[in-house]
Task: structure prediction
Amino acid sequence: MISVADLLLKNRIPGNCFATGTYVRGDIEMGLLENQQGDRLLALPETLIQAIYAGLDKETGQAARLVLMNCGRWWGKNFYTRFCEQLTLYYDQAPADMPMVEFMQAIEQCWIAHGWGKIEMDQTYQNRGFLVINIRNSIFARHAPKTNQPACYLEAGILAAFFSQLTGRELDCLQTTCESMGADCNRFIIGLPKRLQPAEVMIGKMEHEAILQRLCQ
Amino acid sequence: MNPKVASILENADLRHLKPEELAAMSQYVNSMPARLEAYRSLREHELEIMQWVAEQLQAEMPVEPVENLERSIKNALLMLRCCAMAMLLNDESFVHTRLVTWLAPRVTAYNSQNIDSTLYGLMNHRLNQVLGSDRMAVLTPLLTYAQTALPTAQPTAAVEGEVAIGW
Result:
């Protein structure tokens, strides 16, 4: 027989860990932002994001994309740790024990709560070893320099590190479409570096689906 | 705080409230005792109501895996608590932002509409029996809103919730 009392977790029913309106808390007097667990949050003004792009381009030129990718990897690694801590604390369950659908929903809600846009996971190619991530309304794409190449290297680094931590395998991430180039969303392919490598030369020359088809051949 | 009341208080800077603003405030305050009473009663009887619902649900859907029934019961408890809070706040948008936007994709992903439909029927019935029509008058609009805003029973592709983290 189902016992309703046993379904409660410390007399509560966990809902959305990253509920908009309750996740971010601010103290105007102290000028601090923190989440509901008390972890400090950092607000990134648009001007700063623009300045990071401009400064890196001036200082490092072509290497800017590598710098952003590595910064993203560092960010993603720490973000994964914090994300898992928050989920464990809130749901009283290790993320590895969570059903995939709920873990993915938590990532989606987390992305929204942090103002990074709307993230969706497409698992169509998962059995072929690739995970596709779509991000819409990305602040990093909006202020990226307009070139003929996708520009969200920071997010690519975050995603590569996040899913590397999640899976315990060293993964890479390639962006195939970018809002800064007029695409409807930013599409990323995550997979093993060796399997993704052939796609690097296809970026900007082939459509997202065509790249995936080629990778899966 | 109810967003309408909060907005009135924020905008009434150094002026008297307009008649329509005062009417909105009166409506909010006058209905508060009834809402508090319904909340107290629900808080007191929640476990008993939901335990009855769980037993009836299990009897009506004996072949359904317990895991699926428990997931739907947990979601219904969340709905009940969220609607109770929205009832206190007298704010339907609370149900939308805190429950529907989060729960709707989950209902679709688990394809739990059939269980949920039976569960809602049992829950509404039992709530009416235990809380009575007066208390339910303030809770029902929110429950109805939540139950109709969530995906209803339709054949959709099921995504089973097995642990699938891995590569």
